[in-house]
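User: Hey, quick favor. My workstation is busy. Could you predict this chain's structure for me?
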Amino acid sequence: MKLKNILIVVKDIEKSKKFYHDLFGLDMVLDNGGNMILTEGLVLQDEKIWKNFLKKEVIPENNSCELYFEEHDIDAFAQKLEKLYPLTKYVSELMTHDWGQKVIRFYDPDGNLIEVGTPMQS
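Assistant: No problem, here it is.
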C-alpha cells in the first residue's frame, strides 16, 4: 500500500488552484467538479461536498496538520508570498531554527497550515 494523495478542504477551488500554482507551481491534473487533483498529489475538495460527506463542520486553522514544502531560496519565497498575498496570516514569519533550518509558517486562504523550509542536510 502507498499514500496516494493529501486532500484539503477549500471554499473556492479556483482561488485555491491559483494560490497553489502562484506560490508552489502546482498545476491541475484532473478536475472532477468539486474535487481537483494538483501535481504532487494535492487534492482540493469543495467545502460543501466535504461537509455533506462528513456531516460535520469544517474547522479552519485547527492546527492538527500542515502541508510541508521545501525551498532552497526561502528568502525569495517569503518576498513572493508577501507580494502576491499580502493579507496572509502568519503563524511564524521567516525564522531560523537552532539547527540552522530556515522556515516560515502561514495559513492558506482557507486556514490550512503550510510550512516552507529550507532542505535539511542528511
